[in-house]
Amino acid sequence: MAGIEERLQALASRYHELETELARPEVYQDHGQVQRLSQEQAKLRDVVETGRRWQDAERAAREAAEMAQHERDPEVVALAEDEERTQRAAAAGAYEQLRALLLPTDPNDDRDVVVEIRAGTGGDEAALFAADLFRMYARYAERQRWGTEVIDTNETA
Fold it and tell me: In 44, 56, 66, 79, which residue has its Cα 20 to 30 A from 113's Cα atom?
């Protein structure tokens, strides 16, 4: 986890540098630079916010565990232990999300895709399978909130 914390600190530092840079009025003279800086900041925003959530949940879990150890009242101990479990679960979820966000991105992730589905050999049954396959991909794209556009279609009689 120390490696992630160091990387998160470096990314948070870069995020704050970008905020400072974008706050300078002279930066807005060059629209290309503003666009580049804004895009970089937007990519870092999710990582930094998720990292903060993870660190806050870890800190709250440690504080709750410490309170449970030093408290004598059984009700307060039970509440502190419950809070610790809740915060540990929140921290685990944020940590997994953070790990996914820190994976290297492919430069083609933001590019468009062309998918061609052909029925092939098999007559009507192959055509039905191709139609089902198209519907499956179209629904998947819809659930991912991706735009779809049918360029050409040849339907059988």
Answer: 44
